Model the fold of this input.
Amino acid sequence: VMWEPWIDGFTRAMGLRPDAWDRLLAQADEETRTTMIFLMALQGIYTGHSKFTDEEIDEIDLEAPNLIPNCVATILYQSRPELSRME
Done:
């Protein structure tokens, strides 16, 4: 599964509403902040601006497709806390 097109689209979409993302991050818990750092690290890998080693990038490349859905859920529950109470 290729995650690169997804992360590129996600970060482009973030650029459409930077104020909303700033507000989300200002109130974010540690898990959400960590999630956003991870997603920005993926964007860095995608654009060739990562400081990770080739071995680290290879491992991240394998794990990213499995981690991204949980990242999305974390952001969703931070931005829409009423959804987490429905579980």
Notes: The mean pLDDT is 94. The longest helix spans residues 54-79. Residues 4-84 form one domain. The chain has one domain: 4-84.
